[in-house]
Amino acid sequence: MSARTTAAGSPDGVRPGIPGVGGSRPAGLGHGVGLRRDHFERVLSGPTRIDWFEVISENFMVDGGRPLDVLTKVRGNYPVVLHGVSLSIGSTDPLDEEYLGRLGDLARRVEPAWVSDHLCWTSIGGHHAHDLLPLPYTSEALDNVVARVARVQEWLGRPIALENVSSYVAHRSSEMTEWEFLAEVARRSGCGILLDVNNIYVSARNHRFDPRAYLAGIPPAAVWQFHLAGHSDKGSFLLDTHDHPVADAVWDLYRDAVRRFGPASTLIEWDDRIPPFERLEEESERARALKDATLAESAAPARDAAASTPVAR
Ligand SMILES: [Fe+2]
């Protein structure tokens, strides 16, 4: 796809020579949904109301077969983002070079708009958890993540974006907030941020922080993408289930995110109890309408001010 870019700050600690790292961020792709097996036939059958697709990288890190064939065809018609769950960027285990090799192969094949994974750890001592576990937000963990992001970006030859995870526990050893940690990772490594608005809302309720303080702590130039998803209210906590429509409170937070970060690429995540594709299109169109209305509202005062500015004669 075309490599349209916009100017952004030049963070320190960035290794030179990787396109997109440390000096630019990708242009917005518009409104996307996850490409799921249930919808392969529908997506291949003709036009959709979707601008781009996100795929779970690990589902396509294979030598052949129908899913890879479908992805290749979809990529012929749409931008695609590779979204992984196994990078374990916060672990102290060595980076898995076999995994990175297969991810690199897939990226060369698909030429995604970008590659993303999560700011978390999923393995320790060679044992893999199936959860995306939160990190202790310490300067030591920060140094570790920044160094590993640099090595992954160097390995892949392209920048990556990291997503904030939802969480249910926190580390007493944390020295800073999650948003301070995430902002520093982006500033020092040059990676992008995939800001999951639902995850912010879920974690804010679970840990009793202000979700709008989170948004205010993230540098706008670093945000490449938003995730929107549904969660489940378990009474004493919220659970990030991706099996519901986006909640009204998350739509409200998305409006604030668009005000701060502009029209970054937006993706609807719906991974369980997956509805018909048309329902996903509706949810994506709701995001588009809300974004457009929010941007129009934001532009109106500036237009009014310009129109009323006295002209020197
Ligand atoms: Fe997400």
How would you describe what is shown here?
The relative contact order is 0.14. This protein is an alpha/beta fold. The chain starts with a strand and ends in a 5-residue tail after the last helix. Helix 8 crosses helix 9. It is 39% helix and 19% strand. It is built from nine helices and 14 strands. The strands form four sheets. It has an eight-stranded parallel β-barrel, surrounded by five helices. It has a two-stranded antiparallel sheet with strand order 1-2. Helix 5 links the parallel strand 9 and strand 10. It has a single domain, classed as Divalent-metal-dependent TIM barrel enzymes (TIM Barrel, Alpha-Beta Barrel), CATH 3.20.20.150. Bound molecules: fe (ii) ion (FE2).
Q: Which architecture would the CATH scheme give at its second level?
A: Alpha-Beta Barrel
Give the strand order of the largest sheet, numbering strands 1, 2, ... along the chain.
Answer: 3-4-5-6-9-10-11-14
Please tell me how large the radius of gyration is. Answer: 19 Å
> Roughly how much helix do the residues carry, as a percent range?
25-40%
From the 3D structure, determine the CATH topology: TIM Barrel
**How big a fraction of the residues is strand?**
15-25%
User: Which H/E pattern describes the elements?
Assistant: EEEHEHEHEEEHEHEHHEEEHEH
Number of domains: 1
Low-pLDDT ranges: 1-20
Number of strands: 14
User: Could you give me the name of the CATH homologous superfamily?
Assistant: Divalent-metal-dependent TIM barrel enzymes
Broad CATH class? Alpha Beta
Structural class by secondary-structure content: alpha/beta
Mean pLDDT: 89
Q: Specify the biggest β-sheet.
A: 8 strands, parallel, barrel
**Span of the ends, CA to CA:** 48 Å
**Principal-axis shape:** globular
Bound molecules: fe (ii) ion
Task: Output the number of helix runs.
Answer: 9
